[in-house]
Amino acid sequence: MKTPPDRSGIKFEVGAQLEARDPHKKWYPATIERIDYEKEQVLIHYRQWSRRHNEWFQWNSPYLRPLERVSLRRQGLSPLQSTPMFVTGTKVLACWTDCRFYPAKILRVNKDGELLALLLPALLKIVNYLTINFDSQKLSVLVLLDLREAFDTVDHQILLDRLRSLVGLSGNVL
To answer: 49 lies in which domain range?
Structure first.
């Protein structure tokens, strides 16, 4: 029989409490309802929700975390950590909004363990999409967020040159 991984703060047993992330990317207190040792999964019940919302997770899923983090965050405290799990500058696979994993570089690790990562392929994908639409004379609309910290790692002159030559942007737009 397979055994669950040793994850700090999470006991893999029926009735154990933890925090789980739902499909809408919100974290909720939850309870382990069942364990499937063959498929290496746990059935999670989101507390105060109907059982129809129960969900199976791989037991090594990043969408499961210890429950203590909720109460510690409310009190402004941080959990005891021996060594940080992630280090600034480390290359990792990060989940993008399309729920796919892309190579990324960790820019910052917050005290509560949350990460700020730069997904380079995502930026390249957007530029590629805009270039294709521009070449096809299609109208494209791009909504930009303030990502100054992410762009600190980009050579601005190269970015401006590419926007001028590939997309044709110039003047006040840049």
So the answer is: 17-75
